[in-house]
Design brief:
single chain, alpha+beta, three-stranded antiparallel sheet, 10 helices, 14 strands
Length: about 375
């Protein structure tokens, strides 16, 4: 096409504050994990088939948004350098332009908030630290990794409930407890691996990112306001990355994920604390998405068969038609995000960012096309 038109029209940018001022001097301290991920930001865009408000008048939005912001004083603040130079949030009522849609929608519908926000800075190193774990050593590697700057492209793949159910039944003998994430992570890892040259001793590696809030002995609540993501490295030999070994790879991915326990998670926090410099200043943030091919597990956003993301409704029974997710500053090997789908059930949406040349080939991959995905091309293609 010689001319591209933007299908999304920006009618307004809403900035507002809560209906009650924050007490003077209030700050929100960031955890070591918050400090370490400073090179990345996450963007969620919720698309609805129709305007639930009947017009683009701001007044109906301002009332519910102001009530929502009563619960999120940190969201209205601004990042500043505190003592001894670490980032913290100054809660100064500066206002927001974007916030979590789900809480806003519940307040707008005058419903009780399912997962109220919990602001805590308690996720710090232990009194008796342990940094001698594979998890901590992997973070050391990430902190010094250099990702090549290449032109990246993104594509979204939507898989139906029926297809995922059929595929899980096919590999049931190998991994009876496999989840849609285990299946799709294995399929995309194997497909992308064929586009890349093995790195170390003829192996391919995948950095798996999971939410650990419910994996701690004292679980963090769903409404925890902060970083609760853990990255770990899984490697397999080149001989394992062939189509006949799909069931085996699914089983390995599943076993790796369920093997992530509290000590591995907290060892990373211990290491981040051990890297603090003079006066207690944290080391600079480093790139976590992309130096190795990274796969993000968003299964924690599904409760039973119901997606928490697609429960963001401004009016009853009118869920988003589509939710787009974008991680800023992804370079290097690429990113795979396995997310909920508006179809719900076992259906999933997979958002992939790869070097442009690899993405063109991935969209023609037979193992993926066999699953009859709906593809949405964007970002460089």
């Amino acid at each position: 096409m010689s001319e591209q038109r933007n299908r999304v029209n920006m009618h307004f940018k809403l900035t507002t504050v809560s209906s009650k001022p924050v007490e003077p001097g209030k700050t929100h301290l960031l955890t070591p994990l918050d400090q370490a991920t400073g090179q990345h930001s996450l963007h969620l865009v919720f698309y609805y088939e129709k305007n639930s408000f009947g017009s683009f008048d701001l007044d109906p939005l301002r009332v519910s948004l102001s009530k929502t912001l009563l619960l999120y004083p940190s969201v209205m603040g601004r990042l500043i350098r505190g003592e001894p130079g670490n980032w913290e949030v100054k809660c100064n009522d500066a206002g927001v332009g974007v916030l979590r849609a789900k809480t806003w929608t519940e307040v707008h519908r005058q419903e009780a908030i399912t997962n109220p926000p919990v602001f805590s800075s308690a996720l710090h190193g232990r009194a008796v630290p342990n940094t001698d774990t594979k998890s901590a050593k992997y973070y050391v590697t990430m902190s010094i990794a250099q990702a090549p700057l290449v032109k990246m492209a993104s594509t979204t793949f939507k898989f139906s409930n029926l297809v995922i159910k059929q595929c899980l039944s096919e590999i049931h003998v190998n991994c009876p407890d496999a989840t849609p994430f285990d299946l799709l992570a294995a399929i995309f890892w194997m497909s992308v691996a064929h586009l890349k040259v093995p790195k170390h001793e003829h192996t391919h590696s995948l950095s798996i990112c999971i939410d650990f809030k419910r994996l701690l002995k004292e679980p963090l609540p769903y409404g925890y306001f902060g970083n609760a993501l853990h990255f770990s490295l899984l490697s397999l030999g080149e001989k394992d990355m062939i189509p006949d070994e799909l069931g085996h790879v699914v089983d390995v991915v599943h076993g790796h994920s369920v093997g992530i326990k509290e000590d591995k998670i907290l060892s990373v926090v211990d290491w981040l604390e051990s890297e603090k410099g003079e006066g207690g200043r944290y080391a600079p943030p480093f790139r976590m998405y992309g130096p190795e091919l990274t796969c993000v597990n968003m299964e924690h956003m599904i409760n039973g068969d119901r997606s928490l993301i697609y429960a963001a409704m401004f009016e009853d029974n009118v869920q988003p038609a589509y939710v787009a997710c974008h991680v800023e500053n992804v370079d290097g090997e690429g990113l795979i995000m396995v997310m909920p789908s508006p179809e719900e059930g076992l259906a999933r949406t997979v958002m992939v960012t790869l070097p442009k040349e690899e993405m063109v080939k991935l969209c023609e991959d037979k193992a993926i096309l066999r699953l009859e995905p709906t593809m949405l091309l964007s970002g460089g293609l």
